[in-house]
Amino acid sequence: MNATTPCRVLLFEDEPGDVQLIRSVLGASRTARFEVTWAATLAEARDLLHDNVSFDALLLDLSRPDSSGLETVKAMWRAAGALPIIVLSGHDDAEFALRALNLGAQDCLVKGSFDSDVLIRTIHYAISRSRLEHRLHDSEQFAVSTINALSAHICVLDQTGRILIVNQAWRDFYEKNFPGHSDSSPGTNYLAVCDNATGKDSEQAATMAAGIRSVINGERETFRMEYPCHSATEQHWFVARVTRFQNDSGYVVISHQDITERKLADARDHLLVSALEAVSHGVIITDTEARIEWVNPAFEKLTGYTLEEAIGFRPTELVKSGLQDEEFYQNLWQTILKGETWHGELINRRKDGTLYDEEFTIAPVRDENGAINHFVGVKLDISERKRLEAELWEMATTDALTGLSNRRHFMARLTEALARVQRLKNHHVSVLMLDIDHFKQVNDTYGHAVGDALLKHVATLMHHALRRTDTIGRLGGEEFSIFLSGTDLAEAVVFADRLRQKIGSIPLQIDDQTIGVTVSIGIAAMEATDAQADAVLIRADQALYRAKSCGRNRVKVTSGL
User: For this structure, is 389 an active site residue?
Assistant: First the structure.
């Protein structure tokens, strides 16, 4: 309100002289400009207000022919709404003025006892107070709406423990679970309710009361506790927080937040973690960058790294052995980033440097929107299984005495060689059949132990003479066979004769005895027309028979060389 913006006043007065006086008084103001609208009757005033004519204040004369006294205040307060009312009375009656104020009037003046400054100041103060009251009312409504919108159960206590305010969530909870329970209502002393609690909830009620009193008395800023709440139909878990108002009122706010779902989720999580910690397989959880967030005790036992040591690292930074190439890991990542599960075997390295065989499964974990946010890996130490598999493979493919391939494995490799000869042009494979000369005589003279030693001695000499691409096997007794991949007959003859001379030049030394040994060798070329792999063995065996028939310690081929 200033000199350019007029203050619009509705004057309810039946005396024209008083109307003129008030207009004169207000017109004399040097600080504000007033526009006065006159209503001579209650009906006329109501019509003006009903027509939404905008006013800043109402001057109300209580000595009216159509209404009188406090009834007029009531009627105009209902009609004026937020408009500040200043009562003009014909007599100075403090009790009457107080009752008028209680009915909604902002102020009360006695006619003839005020001058221009008093009236103008009264109007200004009435307008200011009215605006403050409405702002306060709006703030209170906002606060009430806010706490009613909260899911937490809220109540405000005064410093004696009496409930002043509760929100809708508080009322709804008590009405649903404890119908008719008095501690849900404003006016009830909440501390007394806690103090008088009996039964299984008495202990937690006493704890709550002690916490509230400690905040009210200023011994602590806040108090917090979690507790179960048993209703007639179900159990809930709550967290209670008590906070002191930041003023000298002594009021405190209590909030009870239902954490039942969180408690159930925590229980489920604890159960899952306990299960994962109990399993014998190593379990690892990483983020999408493969950085470790959690491992179980089995992982710690398997790798030697504790949870604290592993967190934040990538598994490859801890256990990578270097025995898998980058393509291996690229294929793994491509699989899991597509949302698929990867499963495979690899060799990893423990913290102490030892290697172990691992069966590893890793699967993506998706969030509620379907996006991958974690990976879960399961590790199984298969070192013992691999060792047993290797032993079984060796038993199935190796001659127990000499360590060479046994007849079954040798024939399987020979069949593979025949397939290559049949598939590839100009690929040569030569097959040697070897027999230790006079082996029966050695057994008869020195015994079977020496005979076994001689077999191992010859097997070792032959094995050391071979290339990586060649294969040797013991077919039975003192009979051996070698196939030379990528070798024609002429080259095979040179190799065989060199091998024969080497064996003949290195006798067996055993028990202070020197036992000389020679071998006879037959050679045959593998043909693409061979129907079975043993066809070439038959031809090589025929050549071996010729070598033995010609005096032993010599090399023969099927062509008669």
Answer: no
